[in-house]
């Protein structure tokens, strides 16, 4: 309702006053409009006061707004208000007086405006726009704004930034407009400077971020559709579970046709992330941000361009690998391919590796210069539905055992693995030959497998050194017949046999539990028959011993490849007819192990003039329990001032010497350390 009035204020001027009770539009309502126009020789001037202005889309109300028009002009059905001064209580900003230009079109009731230097967020913003019956459009451009103050300002208008906190600054430009059917579109460009942001659940964090952000978003019917571009060349970014440091390689992020209703669940129809030459990732995924201590989950297809393995591992894979064998690796090389995932769980994969390095910092395993392709059809796919996987490497290691280069071809399907051709892995001067390998349902409680392998002669010194034992001389070869895997345990259908030191070695009752776990457990019995002691002691600086040696190791139990229990009995075979000789050095070293007194006898009297002694038999027994060896020997030796003794070496002939042990309980760790010292020093040491 318009109620105009006219009054003559002076002889040379005329005043025109009026009111409008209410104007209604799709996105705004206006009440209690009062205006006054003064006409004189210089033209028209006017004042407009608005009692109440409702911005429906933003759910904001402005009260007591005044507009002073220094120049008013009428053009057709349009009223122009140039060089205006607007005083208003702006939402979240406060009352300000700013300058601008206004237009009102009487027929369409459209309002157009330009506003200059609106003070907000410790900076200034200029606005340009228009409002009509069916909607509005707003263009904006700012100077440097403080991001924390900007978030406080925007919080009442959108849920998109709920829970965000930030520091740093940004220059903003863009537009906001509404359309039919309650549709709103925002186009935003932000030049970020030292931006540090985080959400309240810690799934999104940036620090010292410098770059350009561009977002186009559309809100309609309770959901948001958006495109996003980010180019950043400094700072750090963490989006659970992915981390990126941008100080060496700039980051480019591109998202198209993304949809969300709650800013927790996102559908990304097309995304790409590039970081210089080290990272190229894209695909189509659904992302659920972590809430209430639940992790962020990703489902969909990810396409990996030529990327750095080290960047992928340090940026996200290391976090996902926490608590596994792959939790702490040194990595290098390149990888590309694609894989499908559901809630972070892989469903299928095609990966190509180029000169990849995987080196466990705890020295449990390593692979150098890994090349090839892996084709895995997924948990539901059968072997043979995808091409074979083929890998090669230049060198590798497993628990201290060095492995040379090899090539492997295999079929993958579901949780199954089948070797397509025999695999020969050179190691320790010999080779491990795997003739047949089949695994079914790997990683499940129903897992089973079959292995037929042989060991071409390897150097015993390298093998025992890998286990931290004193180094042996000679070689080891043998066969592993029909090893079966079931119930997360490995068993051997027969005896694992080997030839070393001129004798025979066999391991029976072999059972290896958790072979691929962090703490493997090995059980079995070991027999050694008629080993040549001269060959054996040539390995050591232990001193010469001639004769034959047999051994029985029953109840052997190893945890993480360290002995924790066994009954080990070393002895001269009853039927041994070979020459039995032992040197002074060997006597001294055996005495140090058993805690006897033969060493003192050798250092005085006539025996010190003899280099070699005859003996009848040798015997030493260790029953290992709870880290301690209960010691005994080739028989009781009677009592002396040192206690009740046992023969380690029972002498024979002339010159004759007996080596008697008196230690009954010896720490296994100390015993191994003592043998190691013998090996390294050459005095009471094994070589």
From TrEMBL:
It comes from the Bacteria. This is Dicarboxylate transport domain-containing protein. It comes from Woeseia oceani.
């Amino acid at each position: 309702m318009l109620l105009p009035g006219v009054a003559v204020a002076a002889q040379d001027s005329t005043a025109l006053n009026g009111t409008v009770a209410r104007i209604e539009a799709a996105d705004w309502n206006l009440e209690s409009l009062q205006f006054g126009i003064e006409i004189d020789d210089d033209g028209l001037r006017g004042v407009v006061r608005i009692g109440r202005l409702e911005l429906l889309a933003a759910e904001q109300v402005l009260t007591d707004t005044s507009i002073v028009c220094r120049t008013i002009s009428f053009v057709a059905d349009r009223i122009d208000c140039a060089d205006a001064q607007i005083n208003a209580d702006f939402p979240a900003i406060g009352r300000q007086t700013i300058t601008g230009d206004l237009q009102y079109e009487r027929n369409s009731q459209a309002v157009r405006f330009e506003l200059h230097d609106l003070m907000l967020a410790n900076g200034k913003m200029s606005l340009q726009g228009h409002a009509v019956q069916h909607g509005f459009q707003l263009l904006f451009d700012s100077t440097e704004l403080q991001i924390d103050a900007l978030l406080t300002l925007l919080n009442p208008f959108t849920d998109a930034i709920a829970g965000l906190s930030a520091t740093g600054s940004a220059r903003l430009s863009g537009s906001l407009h509404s359309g039919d059917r309650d549709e709103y579109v925002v186009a935003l460009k932000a030049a970020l400077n030292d931006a540090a942001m985080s959400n309240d659940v810690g799934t999104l964090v940036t620090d010292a971020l410098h770059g350009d952000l561009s977002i186009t978003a559309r809100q309609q019917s309770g959901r948001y559709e958006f495109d996003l571009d980010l180019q950043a060349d400094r700072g750090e970014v963490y989006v659970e579970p992915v981390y990126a440091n941008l100080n060496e390689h700039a980051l480019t992020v591109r998202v198209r046709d993304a949809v969300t209703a709650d800013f927790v669940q996102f559908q990304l129809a097309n995304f790409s992330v590039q970081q210089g030459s080290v990272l190229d990732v894209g695909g189509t995924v659904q992302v659920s941000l972590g809430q209430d201590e639940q992790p962020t989950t990703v489902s969909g297809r990810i396409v990996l361009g030529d990327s750095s393995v080290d960047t992928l591992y340090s940026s996200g894979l290391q976090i996902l690998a926490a608590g596994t064998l792959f939790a702490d690796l040194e990595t290098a090389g390149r990888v590309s391919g694609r894989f499908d995932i559901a809630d972070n769980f892989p469903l299928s994969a095609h990966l190509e590796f180029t000169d990849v390095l995987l080196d466990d910092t705890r020295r449990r395993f390593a692979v150098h210069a890994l090349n090839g392709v892996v084709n895995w059809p997924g948990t539901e796919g059968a072997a043979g539905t995808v091409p074979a996987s083929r890998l090669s490497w230049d060198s590798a290691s497993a628990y201290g055992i060095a492995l040379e280069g090899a090539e492997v071809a295999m079929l993958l399907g579901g949780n199954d693995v089948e070797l397509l051709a025999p695999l020969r892995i050179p190691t320790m001067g010999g080779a491990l030959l795997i003739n047949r390998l089949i695994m079914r349902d790997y990683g499940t409680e129903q897992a089973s497998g079959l292995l037929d392998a042989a060991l071409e002669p390897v150097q015993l010194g390298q093998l025992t050194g890998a286990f931290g034992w004193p180094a042996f001389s000679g070689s080891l070869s043998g066969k592993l017949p029909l090893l079966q895997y079931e119930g997360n345990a490995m068993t051997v259908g027969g005896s694992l046999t080997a030839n070393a030191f001129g004798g025979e070695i066999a391991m029976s009752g072999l059972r290896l539990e958790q072979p691929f776990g962090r703490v493997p457990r090995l059980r079995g019995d070991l027999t050694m028959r008629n080993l040549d002691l001269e060959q054996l002691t040539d390995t050591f600086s232990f001193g010469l011993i001639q004769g034959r040696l047999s051994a029985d190791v029953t109840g052997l139990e190893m945890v993480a490849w360290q002995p924790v229990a066994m009954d080990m009995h070393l002895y001269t075979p009853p039927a041994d007819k070979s020459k039995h000789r032992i040197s002074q050095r060997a006597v001294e070293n055996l005495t140090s192990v058993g805690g006897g007194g033969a060493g003192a006898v050798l250092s005085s009297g006539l025996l010190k003039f003899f280099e070699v002694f005859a003996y009848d038999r040798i015997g030493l027994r260790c029953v290992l329990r709870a880290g301690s060896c209960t010691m005994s020997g080739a028989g009781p030796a009677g009592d002396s001032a040192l206690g009740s003794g046992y023969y380690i070496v029972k002498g024979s002939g002339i010159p004759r010497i007996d080596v008697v042990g008196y230690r009954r309980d010896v720490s296994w760790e100390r015993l191994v350390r003592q043998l190691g010292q013998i090996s390294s020093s050459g005095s009471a040491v094994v070589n």
